[in-house]
Structures are given as structure tokens and as C-alpha cells.
Design goal:
The protein is an alpha/beta fold and about 300 residues long. The protein is built from ten helices and 15 strands. The model has no long low-confidence stretch (mean pLDDT about 85).
């Protein structure tokens, strides 16, 4: 086929779905057609392009080099089309379409769940896809539209909107502190205690305890680490050590007496400590749904954190 401009957009859309789902059967379900129809459509697309797009095996589908090129460009075309359609149709109307949101696990589970549920209630026609993950770095590669991240500095390649600074706290159960009261009150000795903290590599390095002009550097040797802050919180309440967690994670249990702050007169530095909303660097292409979600999160989180 010489005139590629005559390619059927529906075939490209179906091809992208095949790759995203990994099977012809699942793609058929997504498009409400038969598996045979999907197979014939794929063959027709390959015939039009005069090239093989997918190598088929009994276990999986594997893209050819030409298939990879078509998939990446097809994905971009569909996103651009969705953005353009949303911008044209949703001005002054209820947002629709799909928004893919990535949030850190701790913030997502402990703070964002009710916020996102209320957002979905307010915009029922919007398809909200949420990833609870601490490891999404490349928004485009991960197909993420909006991300919330706690970082020291926002990535240069994205549009970053600062929400607030995040304070980190050390805390432990009353039982653990009763058994280790001397070390828990001394910034020179506290690193000897069992620490419960994130599995982020930064916690293998040093943190800084700051009190006015005094700064004490600590080299931690964690005894329990996880990306699940709720699990770490439970571990601390079960006398397993001193937890190093964001203040929003421990605030309720500290208020209820389940945990007590350790060295509260010190500010903890050396850790990623600013919450940002990140979007791709093409804000003019953002759909009405993406803009609505971003503005909603900004307003709600600033209220939660008192900023």
C-alpha cells in the first residue's frame, strides 16, 4: 500500500488494544467483537502495510520492529485524538474520557482514597485509572497522565506544581520507648535502635537531625523496610522499633496515643520532602479531564495539609 494516509484509524486502535491486553481474545472483549474478527482485522492491517507486525506463539504475542514503531506512533495518535476531542467537546461541560493517575502508596492509602472517591462521585462520566506505586518515573513510558510525587526536586521534563513541604517524624510505641528510653532521647545514640522505614535507597544513607544551629548526621541501619507505609505503621505500633515516616502517616496514631514522637524538637532533613503534582510538558494538549483532576487535587491537598 503506497498511501498510508488511507489507513483505517479503527484498525490502529484495535492493534494498540491487542498489544496493551496481550491477547487477541482480550482485545476482542474490549471491542465487543469476536476473536476471529480481531484476527482478520490484524491480517488486513498487515496486508495494507505489507509487513508483519506481530510474531505469534502459543504463549504470547511479540512485536516485530515494524510493529513496535506502529504501536508507539499509534498510541501517540490516539492520545492526541483523545486530547483534541476532549478539548473541543468538553469546554464548559462535564469532563469525560480517561485519566491515568499515579500516587505514592502511603499517600494514596492514607490520604487520597476519600478525595479520589469524592472526585469520582462528582464526575461519574470520567474513567479514572489509579496506580498505587512508588516506582513510576517516566510518565510517558508508563502511560501516566498525572502523578503525585514526594521528591527533593521535581524532574526537569515535566510540569511540576508544588503542593506543600512534607515533614518526616520519628515515632515509636510507648512499650518500645519504655524499653529504650535512654537511647531514644539522645540524638547521638538513637541510630543504635531498630529503625522501621521505607525501602527507598536514601534510607541506607544518612539523615540529618536539625535543631536551630545544631545538626546531627545519622547513619541508619534499618531493621524493617517496606514501600507500604500502612504496614510500617502497624509494625511500629507492635513494638518493633522507631518508625521514620511522613507526619501525615503517623499523625492520627500519635494523637490517639498509640505512638509517641521521638526527639520531636528536631527537624529531619536529608529526605525527599516536597509534594508535587506532575504532568507531561505539553499542558496545551491536556484534556479537560486531566485539568479538572489536577485542579481538584491541588485544592483538596492544600486543604488537607493546611497550605
Amino acid at each position: 500500500m503506497d498511501n498510508y494516509s488511507e489507513l483505517d484509524l479503527n484498525l490502529i486502535r484495535l492493534f494498540v488494544t491487542i498489544i496493551d491486553t496481550g491477547t487477541l481474545s482480550e482485545a476482542a472483549k474490549r471491542h465487543h467483537i469476536t476473536k476471529s474478527h480481531v484476527s482478520k482485522s490484524l491480517k488486513r492491517l498487515e496486508a495494507q502495510l505489507n509487513t508483519q507486525l506481530i510474531r505469534r506463539s502459543t504463549r504470547r504475542l511479540e512485536l516485530t520492529q515494524q510493529g513496535e514503531v506502529l504501536y508507539q506512533h499509534g498510541l501517540g495518535i490516539l492520545r492526541e485524538l483523545e486530547a483534541a476531542t476532549n478539548q473541543m467537546l468538553m469546554l464548559g461541560a462535564e469532563p469525560t474520557g480517561t485519566v491515568r493517575l499515579s500516587v505514592p502508596t502511603g499517600l494514596g492509602e492514607l490520604i487520597l482514597q476519600p478525595i479520589l472517591i469524592d472526585f469520582k462521585k462528582a464526575y461519574p462520566r470520567l474513567n479514572l485509572q489509579i496506580m498505587f506505586s512508588n516506582r513510576v518515573n517516566d510518565l510517558i513510558e508508563s502511560r501516566v497522565d498525572v502523578a503525585l510525587r514526594v521528591v527533593a526536586e521535581p524532574p526537569q521534563d515535566y510540569v511540576a506544581k508544588k503542593i506543600c513541604d512534607v515533614q518526616w517524624r520519628m515515632c515509636a510505641s510507648p512499650g518500645y520507648l519504655a524499653a529504650h528510653s535512654k537511647a531514644a532521647q539522645d540524638p547521638q545514640q538513637i541510630a543504635q535502635l531498630q529503625f522501621i522505614c521505607s525501602s527507598n535507597r536514601r534510607f541506607h544513607e544518612q539523615i540529618i537531625l536539625e535543631n536551630g544551629e545544631t545538626a546531627t548526621r545519622l547513619k541508619l541501619q534499618p531493621g524493617l523496610q517496606s514501600e507500604n507505609f500502612r504496614f510500617l505503621l502497624t509494625a511500629a505500633k507492635n513494638d518493633l522499633g522507631v518508625a521514620l515516616l511522613p507526619s501525615y502517616v503517623v499523625a492520627r496514631d500519635v494523637a490517639e496515643g498509640n505512638l509517641q514522637l521521638v526527639l520531636p524538637q528536631y527537624r529531619i532533613g536529608g529526605i525527599d520532602a516536597t509534594l508535587y503534582i506532575l504532568t507531561t510538558a505539553r499542558p496545551h494538549l491536556a484534556s479537560a479531564a486531566i485539568k479538572t483532576l489536577t485542579q481538584y487535587l491541588q485544592a483538596q491537598l492544600k486543604t488537607v495539609f493546611g497550605k
